[in-house]
UniProtKB/TrEMBL annotation:
GO BP field: methylation
Principal subcellular localization: mitochondrion
The reaction(s) this protein catalyses: N(6)-methyl-L-lysyl-[citrate synthase] + S-adenosyl-L-methionine = N(6),N(6)-dimethyl-L-lysyl-[citrate synthase] + S-adenosyl-L-homocysteine + H(+); L-lysyl-[citrate synthase] + S-adenosyl-L-methionine = N(6)-methyl-L-lysyl-[citrate synthase] + S-adenosyl-L-homocysteine + H(+); N(6),N(6)-dimethyl-L-lysyl-[citrate synthase] + S-adenosyl-L-methionine = N(6),N(6),N(6)-trimethyl-L-lysyl-[citrate synthase] + S-adenosyl-L-homocysteine + H(+)
The Methyltransferase domain, residue ranges: 83-198
Subcellular location as annotated: Mitochondrion
GO MF annotation, one: methyltransferase activity
Family of this protein: Belongs to the methyltransferase superfamily.
Name of the molecule in the record: Citrate synthase-lysine N-methyltransferase CSKMT, mitochondrial
UniProt keyword Oxidoreductase, yes or no: no
Key word rRNA processing present: no
Listed GO CC annotations: mitochondrion
Length: 254
């Protein structure tokens, strides 16, 4: 069994089966086509129709499981001249981005971006209904329909401080035609991140496989390079999760 399919069987199948237990055709479509906009539109539409009130869908885990990784990093990046820019990439209907907005002592501008307009609309409606207030009155929160293979069409080069990727790259890598897109997304992240910024990639993928992939894809001689590190998030429901931190580095021209 390949590392991709093994990981899918341990984590993704369990999560998807829980959410779409009575929709076997949707489960199959998700497993095969997690890189497709139409797949996620269908998923969020059907998942939302199963409950009388809105409920956040959390891929892997929620904010509480990773706040001790994300929030200290934000605090260490204080910039007195401007808001810290945080991107929750492939946000879906997760509460992760809004939770960063709510809990950050420092002023942040949080963008929750997803390829699915259905997910974006559901989150906009939910946040308006809940009237969530930030810890810092200067903080901002927005929801944006965006294909993350084109981040530089919305964000300026070297303009984002932190990008959080909770399952988005995993979904691409595990879909039938998504591995190439995953590499494009990583390179887009490195383009829009500040030199002091970081990409936090949360995954259940074993470091032996993910580190090699990240180190290979993040290097483009004369164009970009990055340092890659990993720390264990912990074990949840029998699955071990990791945080991969990718930090842009200056390109050395020979």
């Amino acid at each position: 069994m390949s590392p991709w399919s093994k990981s899918l069987s341990l984590s993704c199948r369990r999560i998807l089966a829980t959410c779409v237990r009575q929709h076997s055709s949707l489960t199959t479509e998700l497993i095969r086509n997690m890189d497709k906009k139409a797949t996620w539109d269908r998923f969020y539409t059907e998942n939302n129709s199963r409950t009388p009130t809105f409920k956040n869908f959390e891929w892997f885990f929620g904010f509480n499981s990773v706040q001790d990784i994300i929030m200290p990093l934000i605090q260490a990046m204080s910039r007195p001249d401007a808001l810290l820019r945080v991107l929750d990439m492939g946000c879906g209907t997760s509460a992760l981005g809004p939770s960063i907005y709510r809990h950050s002592f420092l002023p942040v501008s949080v963008t929750c971006a997803d390829i699915s307009p259905v997910a974006v609309r559901l989150m906009q409606e939910h946040i308006q209904a809940k009237a969530i207030q930030p810890h810092n009155a200067s903080s901002q929160l927005e929801f944006l329909e965006l294909d993350c293979t084109h981040l530089d069409k919305h964000f300026g080069l070297s303009s984002v401080d932190i990008i959080v990727d909770k399952g988005t790259t995993d979904a691409l890598l595990r879909s039938k035609e998504g591995k190439g897109k995953a590499g494009v997304v990583l390179k887009q992240c490195l383009k829009v991140l500040r030199s002091s910024g970081s990409l936090l990639q949360f995954s259940d993928e074993d470091p032996d496989a993910r580190l090699l992939w990240l180190e290979t894809e993040a290097q483009d001689p004369g164009v970009m390079r990055a340092d890659v590190g990993v720390q264990e998030v912990g074990e949840l429901r029998g699955v071990c999760y990791y945080c991969y931190q990718v930090t842009p580095q200056p390109v050395v021209l020979k």
